[in-house]
């Protein structure tokens, strides 16, 4: 395995399996189980889902290949990667933008991950066992308005993330996740079965799967496309960074396809679990916002024997899925400070992680605890988790398609696999389809 300069400090994958696990770990997280149902529920259901599916496979998969190719070719963090492929060109700024976006996204991601830690405990303690839907909703509202616990959970989650990135011990976590994620998958399947057999499930199913094209405006399209990037960890350099730790033997094309399929499957199942349940419980609405899964899931757990233990297992696995995603976000910024600023890993993880914790405070307290911060989480989720990633992905596709060149990229994609027969199709998607789709959406948005 190659080990270019500087990579010892940065670390590299011991095996191809470690890499695929890390990318799957990065992709599958709160995006699938928390953000996807929340966004789909606010944007009218089926129409959003349809655009999300198309965007995932038509734009997301090619962009993932592009990021992997850039990362492996340069063996650098996003800033260094852009700079080394286009020296003296100003493209380094695109990398800087990606790193910055990652920093902000992790700040609120950690807040929601903290909620899952709290809910592991709430479920385990049995305090919601047999509770009415109103009581379940009230528990969530009381929790997010109480500054101590929300900050405490945010802090705890960031500390765990920092500890892992600091020690460069993510491989251990990825190995553990390899066993735990299939368990999450099975629990999710059981939830789907229970949810689909609740009275009134059909209405939820049709909300989720039957597109109402009247709902499709440019905002919904933008949200669905940006969510595809969010879910696949694209547009902020996470995949460039992971690709940079990669051996030439790895098949980038099939990795991108498999990771995207797995990621889509988990999100799709999450929707199948959430939407039927919403419509079967009086008082629940699909557009409830960031609290959606926290007020819906406990109702399903209550309809399952030993549901509180089931619920605790589900939330802790969700927290672990969030952790492997958070590691990948922190890693982007840490790799940047190691490569470009010469910091050591330990110092970088602590410093960057602390800054992210502080940046997350308004998101943590903006849900009823401190009026001044009201709406922060929704705002950063929409503008950084949404728009920021769309712009990041636009820059990647323009860079690879028009600056570095699809010829060079295809050459990189062919290392470790042999001829990439769909290389030209891929090149067409990266040069034309991705940028034009994104630019059209942005243009329409500006026109109002
Ligand atoms: N894809 C992750 C999730 O679905 C979130 C993420 C976004 C991770 C961007 C890294 C980069 O939860």
Explain what the structure shows.
- This protein is mainly alpha-helical and 448 residues long.
- The protein contains 18 helices and no strands.
- The longest helix is centred in the C-terminal third of the chain and has 39 residues.
- The site of phenylalanine has 15 residues, from helix 2, helix 3, helix 11 and helix 15.
**Shape descriptor:** globular
Backbone structural class: mainly alpha
Span of the ends, CA to CA: 52 Å
Averaged pLDDT = 93
Beta-strand fraction estimate:
under 5%
How much helix is in the residues? Answer: over 70%
Taken in chain order, the helices and strands follow as HHHHHHHHHHHHHHHHHH
Low-confidence stretches: 1-8
Count up the helices: 18
How is the biggest beta sheet arranged? none
Q: Hetero groups bound?
A: phenylalanine
Rounded to an integer, what's the Rg over CA atoms?
21 Å
**Counted beta strands:** 0
Quick rundown:
The chain has 448 residues and is mainly α.
Topology:
Layout: H1 7-10, H2 16-27, H3 30-42, H4 46-74, H5 78-85, H6 92-125, H7 133-144, H8 147-167, H9 170-196, H10 201-209, H11 218-231, H12 238-243, H13 252-280, H14 292-301, H15 307-341, H16 345-365, H17 376-414, H18 423-447
Helix pairs in contact: 2-9, 2-13, 2-15, 3-11, 3-13, 4-5, 4-10, 4-11, 4-13, 4-17, 4-18, 5-6, 6-8, 6-15, 6-16, 6-17, 7-14, 8-15, 8-16, 9-13, 9-15, 10-13, 11-17, 11-18, 13-14, 14-15, 15-16, 16-17, 17-18
This protein binds phenylalanine.
